[in-house]
Amino acid sequence: MALQFYTIIWTLLGQANLLSRINSIIDENTKIILISATVFDADFHYLIENGINVINKEMIDFPGSGRQIKFRDKMIKLLNNCCHNMT
């Protein structure tokens, strides 16, 4: 039980630090892509709830350990769907 409590506290502190760091380098037009299941699962909802413009609504595989094709395919799809109107 104590380990679970500390894990939750550490995650919350880590997310607050992440949010602070992101906010220090972005503006309202910045689009964020979360890569890897670990990062996406841990931070997607937290960042969305705090106004960060995360553009991938599903996990994008980390391009290591044989997942390069999945990474490429998901990134192409995401960028074509989301950012094709950018100038």
Structural class by SSE content: mainly alpha
Poorly predicted segments: 1-7
- Basic shape: globular
Q: What percentage of amino acids are in beta strands?
A: under 5%
Rg on CA atoms, Å: 15 Å
Q: Helical content, roughly?
A: 55-70%
N/C terminus separation = 51 Å
Total DSSP E strands: 0
Mean pLDDT comes to 85
Number of helices: 3
Compressed to H and E, one letter per element, the order equals: HHH
Number of domains: 1
Could you describe the largest sheet, including whether it forms a barrel?
A: none
Q: How is this fold's topology laid out?
A:
Blueprint: H1 2-25, H2 37-49, H3 68-83
Explain this structure:
By secondary structure, this protein is mainly alpha-helical. The protein has one domain. 61% of the residues lie in helices and 0% in strands. The chain contains three helices and no strands. The protein has helices spanning 2-25, 37-49, 68-83. The longest helix has 24 residues, at 2-25. The radius of gyration is 15 Å and the shape is globular. The model is unreliable at 1-7 (pLDDT under 50).
